What we know:
By secondary structure, this protein is an alpha+beta fold. 26% of the residues lie in helices and 34% in strands. β1 (5-7) and β2 (12-17) form a beta hairpin.
Amino acid sequence: MKDIRDNKELSRFEWCKDDCLATISYNVTTGGKVLELTHAFVPPPGRGKGIGHALVKEVLHEIKRTDRKIVPICPFIVQYIRENPEWKKICV
């Protein structure tokens, strides 16, 4: 998903798909090496199309690529990691 953007000013990852701005909000901790993923949001017109799952997957890939860790707080992200346990290795 090459169109994902880390909007550091708003502390969120963003992806515009089908005219819907899907986001994952975060807090930065531990000198920028750990991100608390606090909230995933897909606007109602984009729900049920797999946008949320695709966004979470790509955000996790980006976090891993940049050698950071996560604290999943958002229930949607927690559930995604339960269903895809390979991502537990980047959890603190």
